[in-house]
Every structure is written in C-alpha cells, then in structure tokens.
Amino acid sequence: MGLLTPDRSQYPALRADGSLDIDLSSGKYLKLWQGPQHPGITGNMSLELTVCGDEVVEGKTHVGFLHRGFEKLMERRTFIQCFPIVCRICVPEPDFNEYCYAAAVEELAGIEVPEAAHWIRTLILEMGRINSYLMYLGGQAGALGLGVIGQWTTHARDLMLDRFEELTGARVYHLFILPGGVRDGLPAGFAGRMAETLRELETTLRDVHETLFCNAVFKKRTVGQGVIDPAWLEPYGVTGPNARAAGVPRDVRRDFPYLVYPQLDFAPVTGQDSDIYTRADVRRRDLLLSVDLIRQILARMPRQGPFMAPLPNVLHWRIPPGETYVRGECSRGEYGYYLVTDGSGHPRRVNVRGPSYTHAVALLERMIVHCNIADVAALMVSLHTYPPEIER
Amino acid sequence: MKAELEKRLVTGPDGVEFEVDPLRDYYCDALPEVQRPAYLRIVEDLFNWARAESIWILGFGTGCGAIEMRPLMTPRFDAYRYGIQWRPTPRQANLFVISGYLSVKTLKRVIRSYEQMQNPKYVVGLGSCTLNGGMYFDSYNTIKRLDQYLPVDLYITGCMPRPEALLAGFLELKKLIRAGKAEGANQYAANFAWYKANQKQVIHDWDMPDYNW
Amino acid sequence: MSFDWMRIPWSLVTLFIVFNYGLLLNALIAKIAARVGRRHGIPLWQNYVDLIKNYGQRTTISHGVHFYLGPVFRLTGGIGLLLFVPTLYGSAYFANLSFAGDLILALYFVFFGTLGMALGAGESGHPYAALGVSRGLSQVTAAELPFALAVFAVALQYQTLSVTEIVAAQQGGIHHWTLFTNPLAVAAAMLSFLGSMMRPPFDLVLAPQEIPIGPPTEYHSSYLALLQTNRAIFPIAKVVIYMNLFFGGATNWPVFFLKVFLITMVSVVVGVVSPRFRVEQSIRWFLIWAVPIGILAILWV
Amino acid sequence: MPSNADPMSLAGVHARLQALFPLGDLAPRRAGLAFVDLPATCAPPALSHLRDREGFGHLVLLTAVDWLEEELFQLTYLVCNREARLDLGLRVRIPREPARMESIHDIWPTAATYQRELREMFGIDFPGSPRLDEAFILEDWRDIPPYRRDFDTLRFARENFAERPGRETWDPASHMRQRLYPEANPGMDPSVPGDRS
User: Fold this and answer.
1) Quick check: A64 and D65 CB within 8 A?
2) Which residues of B touch C214 (CB under 8 A)?
3) Chain C within 8 Å of B120 (Cβ-Cβ)?
C-alpha cells in the first residue's frame, strides 16, 4: 500500500564524515530515550533513539549502568576469593562465569579435574542454559505484548530453579563450580525429579509453541523483521543463536569441544531466515536440545566421586605466569575468560568476553536504523543481550 | 554537561530567535515540601490502609536483584495477591525497589525517577549491597549506603534475597505504611539539603535541576 | 416537551450500579487473565483500593489546564455515553436520558473521550504520550469506521435513530436479534469492538514495552484515579450500545450483567493469547477485514 | 594460498606470517591456542592479513594488560579461525605514556566498542576510532583511568562513598592461622564477635 510506505525523502542527509545530519530544532526529528527506566529494555541499559515519524534514523546504546569493575576487583582478590564474585557478572546464567573462570585457572595452574566433575559441570551449564532461554522466551513474547508466555516460562524456570536448589543449595548464584572441580555430587533421587521437571518443561514448551509460534499476529510482527545479514557475522562478531539463525552452524560446544560435549550426541540447531521469528525458534529448539542433553548426561554420568581435585592451600595459592583464553557456548553465544597471571597470588588481569558485548552495542546500533519504534523492544530482546556482561 | 542542555539560541518556526536555557526553562525548580497528612485521623488511616494494600512498584531493575522480581509476579509467588503490581512510569508508582547495587551512573537515574514519584512514596533496598556495599565494598563505581542518598523504609538482606524474603519484606512494609511510619517522602523533603549534598558529592556531573518534578 | 425530572436521580443510580459493576468486572477480567497464566490473580476488591489510594496521594503536578481537562473529558465521554442510551429496555427508571436521536449522540460520545485525552496527554509534553496519542487517534479512527458502517446498517434496517426503538424491534425471542437478522453488521461491529477495547492485539496505544504507557504516562494521583473511574464506566457504556444494537438489549439487571460480561469476554479471550499489532498493521487489518464487511452490511440492508 | 608448513596449524600460520612481519616466537598455550608478540606498527596489517588470507575472521576480544613495573601496556588481539578451529593471540606492547595505538575499527567494526572501553578504562588513545571520547561505561570520571594498576579502588571507595559503621574485614590467611593455631598467636581470641565462620 503506497499510502503506508514511509516517505524516504524525509531522511537525514549524510555528512562528509559519515554521520547523519540531524538538526533537532528543525522539528522533523525527535530524540527519544528508552531506558534505563523502561519496561521494554532488557536489564538496565538505555537506547538513545532519534526518530523521524515512527522510524528510527539513528540509535545509540548507552551501557555502564551495571558497572561494578569486576576486572579491577579481581585483581586485588586471591584466586579463590575471585570465585564467589565471578558468578555475579551475569545474573540470568551465572554458571558460565564460574566454569570459564575455573577452567582458565585450572589450565594455568595445571590442575586435572576428575571425570565426574566434568559431567556435573556440563549438567549445570545445560540447566543454566534452559533457565536463560526460558527468560528469553518470556521476554520475547512480553516485548510484543503477550504477557502470558512470560508467566508460563517463569513458572517452568522456577521448577528448574528448584532442581538447582536441590543440587547446589541456591536459587540464583550457585557457587558450585569452583577451581578444581565441583562442590559435591548429585543428591539422592535427583535424576528422577529432574526427569519429571523435564517432562513438565516439555509440556510448557508445547503450550508456548502453540500459543506463540503458531500465532498469526506474532508471525506478522516477527517474520522478516530484524534480519541479520550473514555477511555481518564476522565484522560484528556475532555468535551463538544469533549466528545459527542465519544458517551458520556456529556452536562452541561442537567447534571447540569442552567438558564432556565430545561424548554427547547432538548437532547444532540452525535456522534459515535470520529474522526475529527464526531466532526465537532456534532458541526454542536449542532449549529442547538442552533437555535432550540433560537426559543423556543423567543416563551416562558416573555416580561416584571424586568431585574435586586436590588443591594447594588456597590461601597461599600462587599460579605461574601465563595467559590463556577459555570459551564456552552460553545461551547467547561465545562466553570467554581471558586470564593473565604473573606468578603472584592474584590474577594479573581478567577480561570477560560476553557475547552481548558485540551484540548489544555495534550490532544493535546497526540493526536499529529504519526500525519502527514499536519493533525496537522486540528487536533488542531478540538479540538476547544481558547488559551486566557488557560492562561487568 | 551535555550539549543539548546548554544555553543556546533557537529559531522558532516563525523566524523569531529566542534563547533557551533547558535547565531553567524545561524544568520546574521548586523544592519539595513536607506534605501534612489528612486532617482527620480516620481519613488518614483509610488512606494508609489503601496505600498499604495497593503497592505499585516502579519497573526499574537497577541491579541483579531484578531477576527475582519476575518470579515474584508469576505463578509460584504471585505478589498480585497482595495488591502489588508493576507500573512502567514513575508518576504512577509509589514503591521504588532498589534491586541491588547502585553504580553512580544508575544512582543519578534513580534519584531522578524517585523524585518524579508522588508523595507518599517508599523505597525498599534489596540485597546486602544496598545495605553496606556487600560484595562490592571496594568497588570504585558502586555506592555502599543507600540511605545516604534516598530515604529507605526497609532493607531486605541477602545476596540475592529469595522471593519468599521479598514477600516477607513487602508484608513488613505494609505494616509500616498502615502504622503511618513510612514517611520517606516527607523525610526527604525535610532533610533535602543533606540528601542533596550527599548526592552531589558522588555525582559530579550534576546536569539536572535540584529537584526533578 | 415535558421532561420527567425523576429521570436524573434514576440515571445517577444507573451510573452508580454501572461504576461498581465496572470495577468488579475489571478485577474479574484481570483474574481470568491471571488464571490463564496459572496465577491466583488480584483480589476482587483490588480496584477499589487502588482508586482510594490514587485519590489519597498527597501531591499532584499539573502541566497546564488542558492536562487537567484530559481526564475530565475522558470521564465525561464515558458518563455521557452511558447516560444517553437506555441501560435497561422497558424500564421507566433505567432508560436514562435516551431520546429519539440518541444513536448519533452515542457515536459522538464514543469518540469524545479519546479526543479529550489526546488534548490532555499532548499537553503533558511527554514524547511517549505524544506517540501514544498519534497511534491512538489513527487506530480509533480506523476502528470506528466499521462500527459506524454497522450502526448505519442497523439504522437503515430498523428505520430509526433511537436506540430504544432498535431494542424494541429486537424483542420477542433470540431470532429477532440483529445478530441473526443482520449478521454482517454485527461481524463488522464486533471486529471494531476488538479494536476499541484497548486489549491485545490492538493495545498499541498503551503498549508498556514500547511507549510506556502511552497517553497516561504523565497522569498520576487523582488524575489517574479519574482515568480509572472512566475505565470502569466507559467500556461498560460501550458494551451497552453493542448490547442494545445487536444483542437484543436487556430487560433486567441480571440479564444486563450477563450480556455485558459475555460481550466483554469476546475481547478478553482474543486478547489474552495475542501479541499486539503495530499501528499500521492494525489499521490495515481494519481496512481490509472490517470495513468491507461493514459496507456489505449496508448493501445487504 | 602459498603454504610451506602444515597449512592447518598455528605453526603454519605463524611461518607464513613471519615471512611478512617481524614476528616473535610462537608461544603455544594448548592445541589450537597460541600467542605471538609483534611490534605495534605491524598489528593492523597483520590482523588484516590474518582476516583476509588466513581465515581468522572472528575478532574474539581486544583487551589490555597493564605491566606497570615495565611501564608498558600489552594489547591482546585474539582472533579466531572458526573453520580450522584455531585461536591466535597477537600481543602488542606499547608505552604507557603516551598510550596510543592504531585503530582497527576499519577491519572489524565491532572493534570500535573495545577501543572505546580501552580508552575509558586504560586511557589508551586510538585516533580515528568512532565515538572514542564519548562516555561508554563510566560517566564523568575524574580520576586516573580505573583499570590502570596504579589506581587503588579500595582507597577510592573509602574516600568517596559513605560506609556503614560496623563492617569488619578479615584477612583470610591471618584469620585462618589464628583459628587453627590459637596457641601460636597468644592474645588473639578466635571467638571474638564478628567472627562469621
């Protein structure tokens, strides 16, 4: 319909240096801030949008509202004192921080982790992935005004948190994967209750599929919206489900196998269209894959310890100089820790590479241009970004 | 100070040039006043009861505690039963849950949002980090004592507090409100200079009016 | 023309009944939505408490006269709509202030509140409010079209502009309802009804995740309480029109409550499992689906 | 593509790269991950070469390490070849004062974000990088850049943020010594209030 196509002649001209020539006092453009106090923003960050009519002509991401300076704080803590704070870097999926930090320390200190600990670590990471995806599904539906999905998925997440509580004793910050192994084995009867939770989870997912993914309005809002061009993957460092939805099977679990993933049977989930709908669908199927992986793990894991490798006296633990990078596939993409040691009892430098770092800043700023204001929230959620891992 | 907040000359649509000083022209700079309760005791009691039974939380997840706010609103814990619900705009909210550590950058936004809320308003600090810094006692970017900057009615401790703790905290807050003891907004207005001095000590780049109506 | 002054207190009684029923109905709807989400939901009296609390807030901030007039206009729209159509057919007490040409007035009042709100929200100076207003006006206009067409079809069908006479023509059994005598008009009107109830998929005016929360962003304390009062009255008043025009009206209060509840449930059931449309999508939806049906309805008559 | 060593290994990549740039020795960390030193001026062309000719298309991270004792910043460019499953870390050492490095935002647009962070947190200048001087994470920071080693975060927090009285801090090593061997530290009571273990 010609009537509803926006008039492109109103768009701002480009200046010589590539920036947009936006004159706010002309009345043509409106500067709109979304966040940090805004229900459509994932977490505590903000978007500075310049809109012309209903379309965004320029968007800037502002982060740093959650900055606590972890990388600095860890430099003045001993290696074991870092362990309780690393999980606070990313709230919805804290276990990846524990795993990556532990793996980096173990590699530099030359510690061999027992086999059973590997299995339990994999189990915890997959459980965390399920939690994170459930939050995402609720958020994606909520960003388009369908609140009931969020109710169902958060309830399913609560069930999964119960299993976490049973296993680790905590709901959100589990502090279970520490350098050298894991704190303990599975409690009695855990596998059975886990199987029950997984069954309920699958029921919820079937409901979500019928209510959300088969919904005409949802399709209308998301199909063909917010497309990531596969050519952007490398320049913008896109990883995880965002890349897989573009048809590129990038999965650290398969490409750079860690823990017990080489022994498990799975193939990365990919999509074709790279739009919001495909990204949501890839995550839903990835969630089902995690359910399957947990079943495999519970069926095949060794039940007997040891779960911890012997550590030196952690109060006087010095690690020889070196540097390493350890990565894992979290629910949003490649999560990595870059650790530099200098032979003292403290890390020399820790750098956390969160996938949101590239997704939420450079990529989002690129994708948000020419996007409708109404789609900004959906687009942002569909990239699945968590601000705390951007600014740490 | 940002460029758009500086004094400048603007040409209106009719061609007349005029000077705009955004900080003075766009905002009301009146200071808050202590608001007396209703004259009749029974009316005030009724209002306090209504306030206690209808707590509208501002939808602003300032820190990691926000992740336990979502289970609070969903089937397992369902805080709607107690008249607690979200409001997306500070104008309509009357409870500000500071969900965890506050970086200086967020503190500025929190103060601004808090001041836009209407009297009476309440603040609940969540987690150890609002109480004494918690895990981040040595961080250069997070404040350690929330009550230096905002009048806090209630702290819920833990890292992070469980939804059960939150519910217990909200019920405790209800008792405070019903007893007429949660007068944070008036306390803020009465000690305005002290709070403002504390805030400005931390936030150097104060590019907003002293009180954001 | 003689005017029965007793109609005024009786219409105030109507107003009172409808207001309370509206508050309870809103809570009931919230409870139903909560049950779909497997929650317990709010207590039934929650809306009363919220209302008292909002009237009891101690401070208010005004952005000018129009800002104040916004909620007042909105409430006037709701009350006016209710007062000028007969709530109960055949009752001398609850026919309110209906008169011969009240259908036209009702059509006007449906739009009146939205316009007033646009005025007030625009005055608040909040960009989200302005966005919400522009979305709201375009959508209400698009949604109003099929409704107007359906109303004309009904008016042509019964050859009258008086709601009372339209209701009278539908008495005497369920097969006399417009629902069965002119199903096309009812279909067009019900599609428009979905659009005007501010529920998904057509709640983009409020859309908390996009423009939190649209026109009422700046409204607080007693202004918000006025808007809440209106939210209890206005939807019911609108449903009353639908009930009178298409579903045979009501002759006593229980039937009234039941019919209003059922008609409202149409939009709730659709809304609870739908995401929301974007504004141009919803306008296109009304133009493509609802308006042709409305035109067909007129042609059919 | 000319190949003299095993083309699919880091050693092969290193050998080919060494023919073009004055590279240091390869420091292997584990299979598929190695670090290599090179001079600052060579880093952007070497990265460009790695991206275009060797398939290292994924910039994993760009970060800095402050070697205060040697008055140096180490910049680490970690690039990854997803197909061959190789990671190569390029280490560039630049002086701390003035800290300046050539920008690589034209090779990877996403590097602009990393460079903004380095600018703010370490005070390293990347001339030409977009929006470099806009506040990124911090807002109105007036001290020395916080990730530098000579910035003392504890002192800064004590000076700037009010503390609640009553908080006690224990050094874990001396605390455990006192608890485990009380007789070796007479005069210290292990059960003093504030002992939270």
Assistant:
1) no
2) none
3) yes
Q: Which residue of A has its CA nearest to C217?
A: A38
Question: Which of B137, B141, B198 is closest, CB to CB, to D167?
Answer: B137
Do A237 and A136 lie in one domain? The reply is: yes
Domain holding D34: CATH number? Answer: 3.30.460.80
**CB contact (8 A) between residue A217 and residue C201:** yes
* B120 preceded by a cis bond (ω within 30 of 0): yes
- In A, minimum Cα distance to B64 occurs at A91
- Of D193, D65, D170, D161, give the one whose Cα is nearest residue A81: D170
Considering only CB atoms, which chain C residues are within 8 Å of A215? 273-275
Strand partners of residue D81: D86
Topology, domain B41-202? Rossmann fold (3.40.50)
Q: What is the ipTM metric for this complex?
A: 0.86
Chains in touch with A (≥3 Cβ pairs < 8 A):
B, C, D
User: Is D157 a domain residue?
Assistant: no
Q: Considering the domain boundaries, does residue C1 fall inside one?
A: no
Q: pLDDT tens digits, chain C, 301 residues: what are they?
A: 466 777 778 888 888 888 888 888 888 888 888 888 888 888 888 888 888 888 888 887 777 777 888 888 888 888 888 887 777 777 766 777 777 777 888 877 777 777 888 888 777 777 888 888 888 888 888 888 888 888 888 888 888 888 878 888 887 777 778 777 788 888 888 888 887 777 777 777 777 777 777 777 888 888 888 888 888 888 888 888 888 888 877 778 888 888 888 888 888 888 777 778 887 788 888 888 888 888 888 888 7
Domain-embedded: residue A391: no
Is residue A25 located within the same domain as residue A43?
Answer: yes
Q: Are residues A108 and A183 in the same domain?
A: yes
* A194 and A83 belong to one structural domain: yes
Rounded to two decimals, what is the model's pTM? 0.88
| In a domain? residue C253 | yes
Q: Do chains C and D touch (3 or more CB pairs under 8 A)?
A: no
- Tell me the one-letter amino acid at C147: F
CB-CB under 8 Å, D140 with B140: no
A210 and A278 belong to one structural domain: yes
Give the whole-number percent of chain C exceeding pLDDT 90.
0
Domain housing A294: 70-386
The whole-angstrom separation of Cα C249 and Cα C96 is 14
Spatial distance between the Cα atoms of C101 and C2, rounded to a whole number of angstroms: 17
User: Cβ A65–B101 below 8 Å, yes or no?
Assistant: no
Look at chain D and report how many structural domains it folds into: 1
* Rounded CA separation A350/D64 (Å): 10
Among D33, D47, D82, the residue to mutate for chain A (most A Cβ within 10 A)? D82
Instruction: Count up the domains in chain A and report the number.
Output: 2
DSSP code per residue over D103-117: --TTT-TTHHHHHHH
Give the count of alpha carbons within 13 A of A138, CB side only.
Answer: 24
Name the residue of chain A whose CA is nearest to D34's CA.
A324
Three-state helix/strand/coil letters over A344-372: CCCEEEEEEECCHHHHHHHHHHHHCCCCE
Q: Decide if C2 is inside a domain.
A: no
Assess if residue D130 is contained within a domain: yes
